[in-house]
Amino acid sequence: MKQQTFLRLAILAVMYTGLSVSCKKDLSTSKDSVTTDPSATSASELIRTPYGLVPASRVHEVDNRTIVDISGGRLHLVDLHTRKLVRDLGALSKEDLASKDPYAYASKLALAATGRTVMGFATGPGAVSSRLSNGISNSGVLPQAGGNYPGYFLGADATNIQSFTTKWIVPKKPLDTTNIVTTFLWNGLDGGALQPVLQWDQGQGPNYTIANWYFVNGNYFHGTFVPVAVGAQLEGVITYISNTGGNWTYKESFTGYPTADVTVVRPTEATSLAECWEAYTSIMSKWPAQPAVAMNNIHLTLRSGVTPDTVHWYGINDGPVKTPTGYNSVVVNNSSSNGEVDFYFGDSTGITPDSTYKIISAVNNSSVLDVTASGTTDGTKVELWSNNVPSSNNQKWKVFGLGNGYYKLLPLNAPAKVMDISGGGTANGTQVDIYTDNGTSNQQWKIVYAGNGYCTLIPASAPSSALDVNGGSSANGTKVQIYTANGGNAQKFKFVMQ
Length: 498
Fold this sequence. Notes:
The protein is mainly beta. 5% of the residues lie in helices and 40% in strands. It is built from three helices and 34 strands. Mean pLDDT is 83; it is low at 1-41 and 117-148.
């Protein structure tokens, strides 16, 4: 792979409708479904990998005793120690033998397997501005029908690499553990051609697993999946072993998990560093339920024995998709011996900024916040009402992120208005209404996760109060007000994306 190879997330646009994984082929039509899975039985099925969607016939499992060998133009798996044949994976084409970039090749393979258009990414640091100008970020965000396939990617040039190590803590599970979507978190070499990966789901869920992935000559390999617990310390390590007979050998491992180890034999040197977070959905309730994860103790050594003091990362916090914190990725420390890169997931609420929701009250888990009689004038009251079927715009709210956990809520039936505390009042029982957006604190709400999928809304103008359903009643027309925060069900709301 070229020295400056960077993230290319290959996506099959016409098949993507969001992405939800199960341990078997998923043909549902939900926002997060796609035909792909590790247990796919058809060669044309597409598997979610850290390289994008890849035909099942090109994804192979290896163990810590098996390596790839190419002889006679065929791809073989052989025993690491005896070199006896374990499995013949078939003949390699000229394109396979020439392939160096796993992301571009995944796109090409998906197109060949399905006959449908696949969109990929430009490469290298010089492509950042062109990606942004076309609505595609260096962080790996590509607009799709039905959603986005976001990823945060940081790359850095390096050659003559002896080892590359990163530590991180397994993050919290997503708030939504029912509609499971694959996510990946990893450090890597060659823009990710070699990568120790933490993944959510991948047919193992709803749980986290680790597996070491790599790409060689048009094929994608992963080691044994090993379950890991939330809060576990991980250390992904990639180590140079040798360069003999035109083959470069590396070992990928997670410290303390030897069954996950893989040995990689490839025809070219692994160059360039990568730190990456990928998700097959842009819905943040399906991302880890915490603000960020720290990829720390980043440590690079070179075979020359002389390592630069700093790593020059690029791809920092760019792209159109931002979490409620306003960040995607941040380089906390660019040291080559104790560096840190933080990837941001959200603010633990699962709220995706600039998206539309119904806001369901915990008083009965079915009634919603409603603009009275679909009114559009200043002062129209917000009340509790049964969920309309089909959905009406006076029961839908666009949640606009302001940063630092604060939002404004715009009713779809009157998008120039926002949810407002009448007269800017702070007393218990003050009515909540809609009013022309004027940027005042009584129109700003801090959304705080309250557990079990529910959130509390705290007005910036009255921080000891909360949005409240009067008397905890579930009757249609019940007043929605502010009241001293007490943690009751009348002050808990679930945001359901529309």
